[in-house]
Structures are given as structure tokens and as C-alpha cells.
Design a protein that fits this description.
Layout lengths: L7 H18 L5 E6 L4 E6 L2 H18 L28 H5 L1
Helix pairs in contact: 1-2
Length: 100
């Protein structure tokens, strides 16, 4: 667990839980409890409008990926083990290569 607050990824996850609660249970859940089990710590995450915006943006990205869109490469160490490695663009392409 972080020394104070919650990790950003957990804030986004909490915002998604809040959105789900609003849509399915018709209740506002503006405070979500995040539990860091290995350290035995729990924190209350107050979901902000910014957290909701980040959550909705992440949801849109996930929907695009589920539809088959390959995300833009980020060039990190994890690229070497990624199953999409062959589909990523390693270098800029010339227009003549694309047209044929």
C-alpha cells in the first residue's frame, strides 16, 4: 500500500465501481473502500470527477481493444513479451509502402 492515499490505478478502478453502482443499483457510491491485503491496510477513496473521466477513457480504450483495434505502441521492456509484438509498427512507413 502507498504511504498515503491510494494508487492512481486503484482510483480509476474505484471510479468504475462507482459508475457500476450508479447504473445497476441506482445508488451513488462516491466513496469506495480499497483494501491492500498484503499490507493489511484499507483506505477510503473519494471518487472525483477526474477519476470518473479517467475511468471512462480507460473503458473506451478497452472497448476499442476488444473490437480488434491495436493500441499505439509505447516501446517499453514489456514489448518483448507482448503477443501483439508482430502487429506493432516498429518504424514509420513511407506512403509508397502503404499504397503498394
Amino acid at each position: 500500500a502507498p504511504d498515503t492515499g491510494v494508487y492512481n490505478a486503484d482510483r480509476v478502478r474505484a471510479a468504475l465501481f462507482s459508475i457500476c453502482a450508479r447504473e445497476s443499483l441506482h445508488t451513488d457510491a462516491d466513496e469506495i473502500i480499497i483494501e491492500y491485503i498484503p499490507s493489511g491496510v484499507h483506505r477510503i477513496c473519494r471518487v472525483s470527477p477526474r477519476d470518473r473521466r479517467e475511468a471512462l477513457a480507460a473503458l473506451k480504450k478497452a472497448e476499442k481493444i476488444a473490437a480488434g483495434t491495436v493500441p499505439m505502441p509505447r516501446k517499453t521492456d514489456r514489448c518483448n513479451t507482448c503477443y501483439l509484438k508482430e502487429r506493432c509498427i516498429d518504424a514509420p512507413k513511407k506512403l509508397s509502402d502503404i499504397i503498394g
